């Protein structure tokens, strides 16, 4: 039998996440950070409608005036308040194509934060990309109410592919470059401001058997703040690392699992990536050496469709077709909490400015807060251990113990106050012990011999 180690679940730290599913529902999941407490659903926004399925989401994560963008299957883009779910503006038919929106659905959405910081008005700039490669960057004014009309704004449109289907699009940390890839489309990098392609990948060479792997990219992500390095996943269960400044072919490639890679994302350190595939496997990899750091404990029963790293806490969230939102610890790769949400999930985002008013401050993880609470409690009160020792049968202050001690001490001679009297008491005790009791058998035999 293999030796196993059971780890106690420390509970989920205080956080807030928003999930999106195939029925167009947005669900808010919160964890209060209490000991061994699991995350749970606190709100649900929208009504179930398969035509309004969420296909992409992006959050403008700010403490003041945050915004949440949601792209739907019917071509509609909703901009909401992530705090209460109120719709700020709805932009219909973003793709503006002659075909049905479902045939050329949006697959990527990004809300820009730089343009919003520079603008003094209530405007927002966002980027969308469809399956056929139609990419547009548009700026609109947010009206005061939903009934007001949307004023026309500047829009830039370009095509990212001539053939094939785009399956993912990502924007780098500095919001200057965009990454695209898909089925029959090699990964390529575009300059957003000039709408020009600056780099295109080259297909890998044939293997030893002369078999060429067809181009089919399913996911991708930039690494930290460097737009020159990015990682992508393929349908042939490969994870590839590219460096724009080095070469057009991948500088590193490795297989993960036996099914297609469905989601990849990078860590804040810039060299750790997280990959999930169609069979529910989730693992972390160090791209500096190509070493598999380990798989996350707990088997997922469905395809993973989204992985997101929390900006502050050392946790990641994953969701997919098994309808579960799972929160993982990136250090121990242990499952902290799992929430069943009934519908197939397509995406998840974190609200990093969530503050738990009930559980206290969220600046530190829950484990550190627990240690601080214990250290503060030892100054004023005694700490009761988790497993108490068995109480003694007789309490020290009970009457039975006092009587027992008195009975034991009654046979002893009185203790002298003067230390010089101790030798005399010892001799008296020995003399008393040497005497034979008058009623004993030895005494009777000795008396009979003397009479004879």
From TrEMBL:
- Keyword Repeat among UniProt keywords: yes
Enumerate the UniProt keywords alphabetically.
Repeat, WD repeat
Disordered: annotated span? 375-452
Q: Where is the composition biased (Basic residues)?
A: 387-402, 428-452
Asked if the keyword Cell cycle belongs to this entry, the reply reads: no
Q: Where are the WD repeats?
A: 297-338
Q: Which PANTHER family match?
A: NOP SEVEN ASSOCIATED PROTEIN 1 (PTHR16038), WD REPEAT-CONTAINING PROTEIN 74 (PTHR16038:SF4)
Could you identify this protein by its name? Transducin/WD40 repeat-like superfamily protein
Organism per entry: Cinchona calisaya
Lineage of origin:
Eukaryota, Viridiplantae, Streptophyta, Embryophyta, Tracheophyta
